[in-house]
Each structure stands twice: as C-alpha cells, then as structure tokens.
C-alpha cells in the first residue's frame, strides 16, 4: 500500500536526521530517559492507544494486552502479526518479528546489524506509548541478530 | 534473558478470535500522527518557525529524491511533454496514491510554468485543530513542498515549491505553488524516464 510507503520514507528520514546515541545509563545500567526517536514513538503510540475501540481498553491480564500488541496493533501498523511471543510469566515478554517492515529495505542477513537499532527506536517508543495508554508502564528494548528479523523485549514495570 | 521458550504461547498467538471487532487506526493515522510528533519535536528544537519550515522542507527534499523512484515504479506513465502534464500527474496520480487526496490544478501565467495545487484541507494535518500559540508562521506541511521539489529534481526539473495559502492559518483553501525554473524547450532533450 502506497501510504505505508510514505510512512516508511518519513521514518527513514527521521532516523537519518534525529537519531542520537542513548543517553548515559543511570546506576545499574538502566536507561534513564528516552531518546528523541523513542519519545516521538511514545507520543504516537499513546495517541494510537487512545483511538482504540472502548472494549479493548478493558483488558485485565497483562498477557491479553501483549497478545493485542502482537496481533491487532502490529497488523494495523505493519500489516502483519508478530511472529512469536514468549514470556517468563514474570513480566518480561519477547516479541519476535521475522521480517520487520522497517528493516526489510535495509539489508538481509548480517550486514548493517550495528545500524539496525536506530531503525527500531521509534517502534520501541510506540510499543511503550501504547502500553502506557492501556495502563502499563514498561521498558522496551530491541535486538537484532540478522536482518530483517528483530526482537522487542518488553518488561512491564511493577507500580 | 531468562525467558523460557514456551511454544504454547505461540499457539495462543495463532488462535484467532473471530468475533473480535477489527481494530484500530488505519495506517494513514500512523503517518499523520508520526508527522505531528515530528513537527512537535522540531518546534521544541528550533525557536523560529522559519527554521522549522526550512528543516521540514529539507527532510521532504530527501524523501522526495527517493520517493520518485517508488512512484515511477508503481505508475506506468508515459513521457510527459509539458509542465502542465507534470503538474497534473503530481496532483491526480501522486497525491492520490500517497495521500488519498486529489488537488485541483490551476495555471497561473501565460508562459505556463507557474501552477497551483488547490486543496480543501491541508494534508497530514487531520488531527491539528490550530497551530500552536506563537507559531503562526509555521508552514505545517513544508515537508510536502520539499518532497515535490526533490522528486522533480530527480527527473531533472528544477522548481520552486511553496505554500501560498494554508487553511490552518485561516485561508479559505490550501494552495501549493509550483514554479518550474527553466523553459520547456531546454528540457525536451533531458527527460529521463
């Protein structure tokens, strides 16, 4: 679909212009603040979350919310479902997409693996923002081993 | 990572809930919201609206130089023979394809190198009610001007592209002006498709 292409081009341009390395980690190596791209993604994720049908906002279980992200949100945004969802049942989830739309135009395999995290920052923020609207604080990080597959690790923060 | 491999969850994932209502925002919303977040970020980074406008235009230019290839690949167009044809294609094919709107085209001068695209609403601004306070000269869609300019340059057509009217600023329509910078006769031999 052509309008998804325009988003992809815009995203690429945003990465080129706005990406900056992570700010210094706080004590214990935790990230203390979002990068510019992550905070933009967060804002978009929040608003996407606010535009959801009312019934989806009544999720009780964490797992339901994560399933929603993997299926409905991912389909709405990237036109495919997440390929797998794993959890340790203690608040950590790993979402795997074997052909992540924003990585497909880059390369296939091990080339540009170091560059790939820049292209995931916005989406990490997006997941975080949507979770926030659904009532969950989270920390989302992304990992790439071979393009275009990537994993998003979501750690739900206990209040 | 301490996460167990639990194949049963993948089964949960693939189990369809057929009764679930189809979800969420269309992808167009994603584009509009992302663009809004970008403009908001640039307004934070730059004090003056002119700088924001310029930066958006520059980013648009970068997008346009690459978007044109995507456009040419999707639309099997025959060669254009006039600026008027080019402008009509931008309005009736490209805008339609990428933004879902079709501006009307007017020609502004007898030498037929100045055109306007007229729109009922400013694209990408569907969720914007009004410009932020103190930002009245922000051209919210400067990105589009840059995209058109970049795309035209890649097909060897130099042009100035600016917003002449903007509904977000209270004008009755949104008008994008395209002024082609060289005479058609000089360009005839340099068309590449």
If you had to describe this structure to a student in words, what would you say it looks like?
The complex is a heterodimer of chains A (159) and B (193). With 159 residues, chain A is of the alpha+beta class. Chain A has helices at residues 2-18, 36-50, 62-78, 121-133, and strands at 84-87, 92-97, 138-143, 150-156. In chain A, helix 2 runs parallel beside helix 4 (121-133). Chain A is globular, with a radius of gyration of 15 Å. The mean pLDDT of chain A is 85. Chain B has a single domain (24-180), classed as 2-Layer Sandwich (Muramoyl-pentapeptide Carboxypeptidase, domain 2), CATH 3.30.1380.20. The termini of chain B are far apart. In chain B, helix 2 runs antiparallel to helix 3. In chain B, strands 1-2-4-3 form a four-stranded antiparallel β-sheet, with helices on one face. The radius of gyration of chain B is 21 Å and the shape is globular. The interface between A and B is large, with 51 and 42 residues.
């Amino acid at each position: 679909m052509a309008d998804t292409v325009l988003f992809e081009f815009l995203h690429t341009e945003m990465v080129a212009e706005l990406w900056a390395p992570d700010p210094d980690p706080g004590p214990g190596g935790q990230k203390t603040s979002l990068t510019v791209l992550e905070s933009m993604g967060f804002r978009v994720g929040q608003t996407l979350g606010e535009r959801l049908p009312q019934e989806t906002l009544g999720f009780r279980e964490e797992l339901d919310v994560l399933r929603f992200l993997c299926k409905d949100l991912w389909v709405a945004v990237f036109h495919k479902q997440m390929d797998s969802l794993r959890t340790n049942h203690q608040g950590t989830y790993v979402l795997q997409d074997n052909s992540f739309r924003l990585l497909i135009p880059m390369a296939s395999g091990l080339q540009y693996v170091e560059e790939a995290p820049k292209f995931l920052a916005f989406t990490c923020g997006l997941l975080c923002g949507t979770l926030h609207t659904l009532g969950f604080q989270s920390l989302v990080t992304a990992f790439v081993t071979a393009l275009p597959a990537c994993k998003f690790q979501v750690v739900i923060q206990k209040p | 990572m301490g996460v167990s491999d639990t194949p049963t969850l993948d089964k949960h994932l693939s189990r369809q809930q057929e009764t679930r209502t189809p979800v969420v925002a269309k992808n167009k919303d994603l584009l509009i919201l992302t663009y809004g977040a970008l403009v908001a970020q640039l307004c934070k980074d730059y004090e003056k609206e002119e700088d924001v406008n310029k930066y958006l235009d520059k980013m648009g230019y970068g997008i346009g130089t690459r978007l044109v290839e995507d456009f040419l690949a999707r639309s099997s167009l025959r060669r254009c023979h006039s600026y008027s044809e080019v402008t009509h294609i931008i309005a009736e094919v490209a805008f339609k394809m990428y933004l879902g709107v079709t501006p009307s085209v007017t020609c502004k001068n007898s030498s037929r190198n100045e055109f306007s695209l007229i729109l009922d609403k400013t694209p990408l601004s569907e969720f914007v009610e009004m410009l932020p306070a103190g930002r009245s000269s922000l051209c919210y869609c400067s990105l589009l001007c840059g995209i058109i300019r970049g795309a035209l340059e890649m097909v060897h057509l130099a042009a100035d592209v600016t917003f002449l009217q903007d509904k977000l600023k209270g004008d009755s329509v949104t008008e994008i002006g395209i002024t082609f910078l060289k005479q058609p006769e000089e360009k005839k031999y340099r068309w590449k498709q």
